[in-house]
Amino acid sequence: MNTSTYQPLYKTIVLAMLRRAETVLTRAQVMDFVLTSGYTNYMTLQETFAALSAQGLVREETEQGRTFLHLTKTGRETIDAVEEELRADIKRDIDNYLSKNKLSIRDESALRGDYSRLPDGSYEVRCDAYENGRRLYGLILEAPTEEAALHLIDIWKKQSTALYGEIMSRLGSS
Asked: pLDDT tens across 96-109, in order?
């Protein structure tokens, strides 16, 4: 099979999946769908991701080992123009996957944490909470070590709802 012949189909599948999702998806989530559905293989899918990025249809954002895929304006316009050509069974497969994995998809993209090393050797830790692709709130903290930075991110992911409630309570909001 000549993969270049099917490349437009693979691009359309990825773009349609990103368009139909209620939140940003990771590369791993898209790969899980495409590979387990048997649409193509790993290497061809990697080529598809590279082509989508090079063509400005998808913007990639890497954070703590996860790569988030953002549909660009050009990507939205492209999928809006060609999605009707995508077979109904593929659209149904996408919708079923997104519905079945809705909670794990939301959890993966809703709470994000990342860190970077500062010139003095400490680490700046950024913790953000997103809803429907929009940043709701976040914290920027400093940690003395990389291990402490990772620990703060872990606590963030486990306790962000309680932290948000506490912050809002102390600020006098409801």
From this structure: 999 998 877 777 77
